[in-house]
Amino acid sequence: MKPFEELLWHLKRWIRWRRIRRGVTWGVRGLSLGLLLALLWGTVGLMQGWFLREEFLLFIALVSLTVTLVSGGCAALWPLPHLQSAREFDRAFHLRERISTALELHQTPGVTWEELQRLQLADALAAARRVHPYRDLPLRIRPFEIILPILLSGLLLYGYAQSGSFFQAAQQARQVQAAIQEQSQTIQEILQQVETNPTLSEEQKKALTAPLQQALDELQTSPDLERSVSVLVSAGEKLQTLADPRVETTAQALQQAGQQAAAQENSPLQAVGEQLTQGKPTNAATELLKLDPAQLSAEETKQLAEQLREMAQAVQQSNPQLAHQLNQAAQALERGDATAAQQALNQAAQSMLQVGQGQAMNQAAGQAATQMQQGAQQILAAGGGNQTAQAGASGQQNLQSDAGAGSGRGSGDNPNAQGGPAGSNPIPQNNAPGDGGETTYEQIYAPSLLGGDGGPQVGVSSGNSQDGQVLGQTPSNPSDPSQSLVPYTEVLGQYEEINRRAIETGQIPLQFTQIIRRYFDSLKP
Amino acid sequence: MTALSIEQFRQIATRIEQEVDKVIVGQNEVVRHVLISILAGGHVLLEGVPGLGKTMLIRTLGQALDLKFSRIQFTPDLMPADILGTEILSDEGKQREFRFRPGPIFANLVLADEINRATPKTQSALLEAMQEGSVTVAQKTYRLEEPFFVLATQNPLEMEGTYPLPEAQLDRFFFKVNVNMPDVGEMVEILERTTGKETATADRAATGAEIVAMRALARAVPVASHVKEYIARLMLATHPEDENASPLVKKYVRYGVSPRGGQALILGAKVTALLDGRYNVAFEDVHAIALAALRHRVLLNFDGLAEGIKTEQVIQELLKEMPK
Q1: Are residues A344 and A372 in the same domain?
Q2: Disulfide engineering: A369 pairs with which of A239, A420, B31, B277, CB 3.0-4.6 Å?
Q3: A164 contacts A47 by C-beta, under 8 angstroms
C-alpha cells in the first residue's frame, strides 16, 4: 500500500470510529429527547383521550425509538469531509497538524519541494501508525446523559401507572364513537329501505328521509356522546310525529269489517274482505277496483250494497270519508246506477289505498323511531354509564340541557310507562326520584355512581316497589374500572349549574321549573 | 531540494546551541529564540538589564557561526556614517577620488549594542539595511553580504538620554527577546566561569553557507491552510477595531500587529517545527514563538500603559481564547 493510501486508510478507520462514537453519543441524547417528547406528547394524548393502554406503551416506544434512531443515525451518517476530520484528529490525537498538512499537500502539490513533501507524508504516516483511536478517543457518555433518560423513563412509567382513568375514558370514547358509527350505518340502511319501499308515496318518503338524513349528517360530524344522543332522540321524535294514529284505527276497523265480508262465501266483497282481514288495505283496494257492478246479478248487487253499508258503518268513526264513499257506492247499487257505483267504489278504493300507505308510513316511521331510540340507548351504553370518568379525561363536561336524553323503560307496575326524551319533554320521563324504573337517563345524569370509598349510596328506587329496592348502583371498589372518579358533589354542582342556566335562559317552560328544582333538591346529599 | 536534510538541520542547530552553551549559562529560551530568528533570516532585539550577557550571547553566536561579526556601541553622538560608512578622498594612484569606506554594518552579524542610546537619525540609518539588506551612501547602493543579521540590545531601565525606538524601527525586528535574571544555580555557574583561570570560548559550529541553506529549508516547510488562517485571525484580533478582538485588546491596545508580525509567526514556526523534527507547522510552534514575535508589535494605549498592562498579557489571552 502506498504511503498516502495507507494514511487515508488510517483516516477512514478513525472516521468510522468517530461515526460510531457520534452515533452512540447522539443516540443516547436522542433517547432523552425522544422520551421527553413522548412524555409531553403522551401527556397531551392522555388528556385528550387518544390512547388505550397498549397504544400508549406502543406510542412511547415508537417515539423514543424513532428519535433515538434518527438522532443517532443522523449523527453517524453526517458528512465528515476528510480534511476537516483530519484537522480534528490532529488535535484529538496530538498529531500536530501532520495529517491535515499531508492531505493538503497531496491535494495541492507544488507547494513545497517533492522531497520535503515525501518526508512530511512519511512523518505523518509514522505518527498515524502510533494512534490507537479506541484508546485515544474513547467512547464517553456524560453521567447526566445517562441519568436523564432513566429519570424520564421513570416518569413515564409512573404516569402510565397513574393513568388508568384516562385509558378507561379513552376506551369509552372509542366505544361511543363506534356506536355512533354503527348508528350512522343503521340510519343509512333505514334510508335505503325507505327509498325502496314501494308502498310509500314520494311525499311520504321525503317526509321520512328528512329527519333521518339530518340525523345522519350530524352524526357524521363526529359529535360527542351527548350531542349524538340528542340527535338520535330528536330524530326519533320527528319520526314519531309523522305517524298518524287514525290510520291504525281505520285499518283496525277495516280489518274487522273485512272479517265479516270474508266470512260470506261467494260474496262480491269476499276477496276484499280477505285482504282486509290479513291487514293489507292496499291489496284490498286493488281487489275493490276489480269489482264491476255492471256485471253483477241483482242478488249479488244487493249483497254487495249491504256489505258496503256494513263496512261503511265500521269505519264511520275512524274514516268518515271512506264511510261516505262506501255508502255512496251502496246507494248507487241500490238505485241500479252501476256507473255511479263504480265511481264511488273507485273513490273508496283510493281511500283504502291511502289507508294502506298511511299504515306503511306509520310502520316505517315507528320502526325508524324505535331504531333511533335504541341507537341512543346503545350509544349511552357504550358510554358505560360512567360519564364522570370521561369528564375527568376531557377536563370538562359539556353538557347540554337537551342532550340528557333518556328513553327509559319503566320497571314498575305500569308497563306502558315509556320514558320520553329528556330535555324536550321532561315530565313523562318517569325518572324523577320515586318515579321508579331504571333508566338510561339515570345511568348518565342521575348521580347514582359515587366516587371514593365510604360515600353515600344513592339508588333510584321504583315508586311502585314495596320496599324501596335499590335498582341503580355502581360498585365502589377503587379497582373497579367502571368507578366514577369525580366526586358526587362536584358532578351534582355541574348539573345544577347547567339546570340553573337553562331555567334562566328560558329553555325550560315555567310550569316545569318547580318540578326540576325539587328534583335537584332531592339529589342533594 | 536543499543540500541539507532535516537531520543535518537539527544537528547544526544543536551544535550551535551547544557552542553557545559553553559560554552562556542558562537563557536557553533566549538562545533558542535568537537562533530561530537567525535561521528564519530575521533581526533580533534583546532587552534586558545590564550584565545579563546580552552582548556576550551575540558575540558568542558570532564565534559559533563563523560569520563576519561587528559590534557597534550606540551612543548619542553616533552618526549614521559611523554605521554605514562614508566616502573618503583617496589620492592613491594617478588621480584623487572619493572612495567608499564601508562601516561596521558591512558584516554578517552586527551587534547594535544599546541601540536606544543613539539618536533617531542614527537609528533610522539601520532601517534600509535591516529591511532591504543594502545601504545607500552618496547615491550609491551597496549590497550587504548574506547572511545579514542585526542583533540589537537595549536597556529598559535607563530612560535618561535614551531614544525609544520608533514603531517602524521596532517592526523591523523579527523577534524581541526579553533577557531575564538567571536563577541561583545559573548565577553560581556564571560566577564560576567568569572568575576562573580560563575563559570559555565557542568553536565554530556552522558556516554562513550552512545558515543560508538552513534558511532555505525552513522556508520550504509547509503550513496547513487552517494554521495560516489561525495566524491571520490572531493578528487581526490584536487590532482593537477588529470584531474578534478581546475586551482586553479593545480597552488597552492602540495599534495591533502588522503583516510583518504574521510573517514572523509563520517563519518562526517553520524553524521551530524543524527544530522539533517535524516537516510541518503545528499550532504549538506558533504558540512557542508568539510572544517573541508579537510583543514589540502590539502597542498599548495610554490606559494600558497607565494600568501597567503588559503586552504579553494581551497576547497570551488572545492565544488562549482564539479558536483553532
Answers
A1: no
A2: A239
A3: no
| R_g of chain B computed on alpha carbons | 21
A110–chain B nearest CA distance, Å: 10
Contact residues, chain A, for B217 at CB < 8 Å: 116
Scanning every residue of chain A, which has its alpha carbon at the shortest distance from the alpha carbon of B279? A120
A266 CB neighbour count, 10 Å cutoff? 7
Delimit the domains of chain B by residue range. Answer: 6-212, 221-321
In the numeric block, the cell 567568569 is attached to: B194
pLDDT in tens, chain B (324 residues): 445 778 889 899 999 999 998 888 888 899 999 999 999 999 999 998 888 888 888 888 888 988 888 999 999 999 999 999 988 888 776 778 888 889 999 999 999 988 988 988 888 888 888 888 899 888 889 999 888 999 999 887 666 778 888 888 889 999 999 988 888 988 888 888 888 777 778 888 998 889 999 999 999 999 999 999 999 999 999 999 988 888 999 999 999 999 999 999 999 999 999 999 899 999 999 999 999 999 999 999 999 999 999 999 999 999 998 888
- How many domains are there within chain A? 4
Instruction: Match 342556566 to its residue by C-alpha cell.
Output: A501
A-B C-beta contacts closer than 8 Å: 57
CA proximity to B269, closest of B212, B215, B218: B218
Q: Across the interface, do A101 and B283 touch by the CB < 8 Å criterion?
A: no
> Dihedrals φ, ψ of A339, to 5°?
-65, -50
Q: What CATH number is given for B6-212 in this structure?
A: 3.40.50.300
Residues B205, B65: contact at Cβ < 8 Å? yes
Q: Which residues pair with B99 in a beta bridge?
A: B88
From A1's Cα to the closest Cα of chain B, the distance in A is: 22
B221–chain A Cβ distance below 8 A for any pair: yes
Partners of residue B134 on adjacent β-strands: B143
- Binary contact (B224, A87; C-beta < 8 A): yes
Q: Which three cell numbers stand for residue A45?
A: 394524548
Domain extent, residue A300, equals 245-361
CATH class of this structure's domain B221-321:
mainly alpha
Rg from Cα positions in chain A: 42
Query: Are the C-beta atoms of residues B46 and B31 closer than 8 Å to each other?
Result: no
Name the nearest CA neighbour of B255 among B207, B191, B285, B300: B300
ipTM of the assembly?
0.86
Cβ atoms of residues B318 and B238 within 8 Å: yes
Q: How far is CA A389 from CA A386, A473, A481, A485, in A?
A: 6, 16, 9, 6
| Same-domain status, A141 and A104 | yes
Dist. CA A178–CA A225, nearest whole Å: 11
Question: With 0-12 CB in 10 A as exposed, 13-18 as middle and 19+ as buried, what is B206?
Answer: buried
Q: Across the interface, do B220 and A119 touch by the CB < 8 Å criterion?
A: no
Q: For residue B20, count other CB atoms closer than 10 A to its CB.
A: 26
CB atoms B279 and A119 under 8 Å: yes
The Cα–Cα gap between A137 and A140 comes to 9
Distance, CA of A518 to CA of B126 (rounded, Å)? 116
Which residue in A has a C-alpha nearest to residue B273's C-alpha? Answer: A96
